[in-house]
Amino acid sequence: MQNNIEKKAPFIEFKNVERSYQMGDRTFYALRDVNLELYEGEMVVILGPSGAGKSTLLNLLGGMDTPSAGEIIFDNKNIADFSDRELTEYRAWNVGVVFQFYNLVPTLTAYENVALMGDLCKSLRKKSVWNEKGEKFTVRAPEDALKSVGLEEHMHQFPSQMSGGEQQRTSIARAIAKNPRLLLCDEPTGALDTGTGQEILKLLQDMSRTEHRTVVMVTHNSVFAEIADRVIRVKNGRIQDVQTCDDPKSAEEVKW
Ligand SMILES: Nc1ncnc2c1ncn2[C@@H]1O[C@H](COP(=O)(O)OP(=O)(O)O)[C@@H](O)[C@H]1O
Ligand SMILES: [Mg+2]
Question: Who lines ligand 1 at CB under 6 A?
Answer without folding.
Answer: 21, 28, 30, 48, 50-56
